[in-house]
Amino acid sequence: MKKITLVLTLVLSMLSTVSHAGLITITDISATGSYNGNLAVLNNGIVPGEGTGWTNPVNVHWYGTQTFFTFDLGSLYNIDDILLSVDNNDGYAISWSTDLSSFNTLFSIQSYWGNIGNGMDTMSTNSIDPSNIYLSNIEFSTVQARYLRVAATYGDNMNSLGEFQVFGSKAESVPEPSSLAIFALGLIAFAARKIKK
């Protein structure tokens, strides 16, 4: 019986090491092109109120589609969800990269897709978000990335980004829970067989 308890304790400790999605700390934010405002507001944990004006100091705003913002996560992560606040009447593209040279589209936001008709609009890919900001149109499958980029793609050329939060887990070689469960069953069977002998 002591062996089974030992095996179960080992398995439970292994399962507790499996990474779970959480808020990822962004290590650096850079911009290419002209913009107005302080880049620090883009990831300070303060989401602008719904309908906030696009030039409000809680946002970074810019004109045209030549400016983009790059978020460095510091290392490779499994990206599960994103929360962002953008000016509602413009289109935006969110893309990802592992090496900062080749970017792939993660999702696009079309104008007026959010919950409001004017001003800053907060959107999330988390379907269980309790604040009613989930937007199924921007849902994506998990990707491994170090860099994320936000760019305006069309609209009235008066664009704004108020907050950008990334959720996921560090990309490590941690066994999948199902693999651990199979391993645990094997250990339990082995221990039970030894006890019977």
Q: What distinguishing features does this structure have?
A:
single chain; 197 residues; alpha+beta; Jelly Rolls; 2 domains; nine-stranded antiparallel beta sheet; 2 helices; 17% helix; elongated; disordered N terminus
User: What is the CA-atom radius of gyration, in angstroms?
Assistant: 22 Å
Name the poorly predicted regions: 3-19
Give the CATH level 1 class of the largest domain. Mainly Beta
Largest sheet: 9 strands, antiparallel
Count, helices = 2
In CATH, the homologous superfamily of the largest domain goes by the name Galactose-binding domain-like
Percent helix range: 10-25%
Q: Give average pLDDT, whole number.
A: 86
Shape: elongated
- How many separate domains? 2
Name the CATH architecture of the largest domain: Sandwich
* Strand runs, count: 9
In the CATH hierarchy, the third-tier topology of the largest domain is known as Jelly Rolls
Element pattern in H and E: HEEEEEEEEEH
First-residue to last-residue Cα separation: 13 Å
Fraction in beta strands: 35-45%
The helix/strand class is: alpha+beta
